[in-house]
Amino acid sequence: MSAFGPLRAGAIAPDLVRAPAVVAERGCVLGRPMHLLAVTSSTNDDARRGAREGAPNGSTWVAESQTQGRGRQGRSWVSPPGEGLLFSVLARIDCHPSRLPRVALVAGLAVRDAVARAAPRATVRIKWPNDVLVGGRKVAGVLVEAVTTGSTAHAVVCGVGVNVHARSFPPDIVHRATSIALAAEGAVVDRAVVLADILAGLDRDLHVVLDRGLGLVRARLEAADALRGNRVSSDDGDGGLACGIDDDGRLVVRRMDGVLTRWSSGEVHLEH
Ligand code: BTN
Q1: Which residues line ligand 1 (CB under 6 A)?
Q2: What's the rounded Cα separation, in Å, for the pair 28 and 26?
């Protein structure tokens, strides 16, 4: 069910129909041209195809629903039509692949800020490397995929899924998921505005952070870090105290023996 009532198959709800106009009004590079689709397999696949076929920097694919939406680590991303914000933005870059972890974090920060704006009374945090949480539950995720030749990344696709209007979730995720609508305590939420806010944040920070590291967004990142100061563990059996995120986007963890380690990827669990 969309926020506007039942959505007929193949339709796009009014708040998403306005997205190209609302985004264009902001005057950012990212978000234009915008391809607004009722249904697609995965907007990340659309953007990757666009990257191969010469789509310009900033091209963005937004879908009302996906048949094969995917998340990190082989998981699927399911969002009923009318409820989520599902999009992928293509940024043409030119950097060493070692800089790519910064992209997921700066995208996560842009999503965090947009969610916080839509739900001003909620505490919105980033869980390294790519989750955005409200009250410990996931409200959004970021999937970054790069187009790389040899030791150069030429393009990056930033796929974002945000639970916007959902008020209920399937049993397997009901205890882990939330939405902006739930966090906003009844306030009206507009997906076009959330999208425009995310793209504007990314537009402002992406290239600065790629060129100069995460230092310039350090204060915002630290304030939003859901893991810092908590005990964490990885799927590989490592664990320790999360001490923050370094300028390259790695999670800094102090092991029980006092040694500082840096984690580059993987799933992190908060120990309670
Ligand atoms: C995650 O939390 O694991 C990342 C989820 C990313 C989902 C979005 S929805 C739009 C874009 N298209 C996809 O297939 N995935 C991303």
Answers
A1: 42-44, 66, 69-72, 75, 77, 86-88, 130-131, 141-143, 159-161
A2: 6
Picking from 216, 152, 199, 144, the residue whose alpha carbon sits closest to that of residue 28 is 199
241: CA distance to ligand 1 center in Å? 28
| pLDDT tens by residue, 85-118 | 999 999 999 999 999 999 999 999 999 999 999 9
Residues 6+ apart with CB under 8 A from 120: none
Atom index in ligand 1 nearest the CA of residue 68 equals 14
pLDDT for residue 2:
63
Backbone angles phi, psi at 183, to 5 degrees: -70, -25
CA 40 – CA 78 distance, rounded (Å): 13
SS3 136: coil
For residue 77, give the ligand 1 atom closest to its CA: 7
Contact by Cβ (8 Å): 60, 132: no
Chain centre to alpha carbon of residue 214: 17
CB atoms within 10 A of CB 205: 21
Q: What is the pLDDT of residue 86?
A: 98
